[in-house]
Backbone:
């Protein structure tokens, strides 16, 4: 097959779509012709894969036009366009799919209208509340319109969780048979040449520094843990609009020397951080189905996560991780302390996570389902 992968982010940037696109290309390049079209400031070259890049350094209108032009060129003779977002990548993909009569499969991992409204502080609602009654003014209205147009005009929408599938079917009026679940799979171990000796009482999280990732709660949990564990350390890997606010909070709570903000790091570095830490924390208030949880399963680091839809389709309490209520900083600190103090519990959870990873989130299962979608849309030409 000639497959075009259209993505809004690409390594060395971190994030689910970036990691997934690269890993998918690596797995498919030997048997298929893979072309990637990406927005990126810098980019990693993959041998045997053609890459088109629309630079993020360019003004937005020029960037989008360049992306659309690259996608038009890349899609000539393609069997399918597989797109990783419903806005900046999704809209050009749908229009070019219509123009070239090429099927488009969209992987929907999060509602961008809600994410943008949250980042811009136009809403404090959780996803379900926002979709039922959107706020955020005209910008939100336009984003919902674009997203709805894209979702209704692709051949198939895949989601990484039942929770997310049901949410978009309700909001955007997609036919249920066209919105299907294909669970994520964990990436391969990044080849790293540095030491991976575990540092006692070191916590790590990798995330965009945005409000719904709950990183303020992690900083507050470190302040509580420091009373019992003076050497506790948390590493927050990633960048984003909340960075200054989080650093100010760490200083206010007198834990600025216990919380390290690394900024953006490479994929290999995120693996090193997981393997050299005792606990991974995912304190989000929203997740579709967190790719970072599966990566942590593969890295065999025990996890504490919030008990929210999406996350709890992968993290099972006391089986593959520990779940805590949203917004409960004391419960988060207590769960981390349990893992610090109980090596047997850590071992039990990583074994349980590995079992779930192999049974439910394997690449073999993911690719079999994905290619079933590709074959089905190839057999049905566009109207």
Residues:
């Amino acid at each position: 097959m000639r497959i075009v992968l259209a993505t809004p982010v690409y390594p060395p940037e971190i994030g689910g779509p970036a990691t997934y696109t690269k890993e998918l290309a690596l797995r498919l390049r030997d048997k298929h012709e893979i072309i990637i079209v990406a927005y990126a400031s810098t980019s990693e070259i993959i041998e045997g894969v053609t890459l088109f890049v629309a630079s993020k350094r360019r003004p937005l209108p020029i960037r989008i036009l360049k992306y659309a032009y690259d996608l038009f060129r890349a899609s000539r003779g393609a069997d399918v366009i597989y797109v990783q977002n419903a806005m900046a990548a999704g809209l050009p993909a749908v229009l070019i799919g219509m123009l070239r009569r090429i099927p488009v499969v969209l992987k929907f991992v999060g509602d961008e209208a809600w994410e943008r409204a949250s980042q811009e502080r136009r809403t404090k609602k959780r996803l379900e509340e926002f979709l039922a009654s959107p706020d955020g003014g005209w910008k939100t209205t336009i984003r919902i319109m674009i997203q709805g147009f894209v979702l209704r005009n692709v051949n198939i929408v895949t989601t990484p969780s039942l929770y997310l599938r049901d949410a978009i079917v309700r909001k955007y009026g997609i036919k249920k048979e066209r919105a299907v679940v294909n669970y994520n799979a964990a990436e391969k171990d990044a080849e790293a040449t540095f030491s991976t000796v575990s540092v006692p009482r070191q916590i790590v999280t990798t995330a965009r520094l945005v409000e719904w990732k709950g990183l303020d709660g992690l900083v507050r949990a470190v302040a509580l843990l420091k009373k019992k564990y003076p050497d506790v350390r948390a590493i927050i890997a990633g960048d984003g609009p909340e960075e200054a606010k989080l650093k100010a909070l760490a200083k206010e709570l007198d834990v600025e020397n216990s919380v390290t903000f690394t900024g953006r790091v490479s994929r290999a570095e995120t693996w090193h951080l997981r393997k050299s830490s005792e606990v991974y924390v995912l304190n989000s208030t929203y997740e579709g189905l967190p790719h970072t949880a599966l990566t942590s399963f593969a890295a065999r680091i025990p996890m504490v996560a919030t008990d929210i839809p999406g996350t709890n389709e992968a993290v099972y309490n006391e089986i593959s991780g520990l779940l805590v209520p949203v917004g409960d900083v004391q419960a988060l600190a207590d769960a981390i302390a349990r893992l610090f103090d109980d090596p047997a519990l850590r071992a039990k959870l990583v074994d349980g996570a590995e079992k779930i990873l192999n049974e439910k989130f394997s690449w073999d299962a993911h690719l079999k389902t994905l290619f079933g979608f590709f074959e089905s849309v190839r057999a049905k030409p566009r109207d």
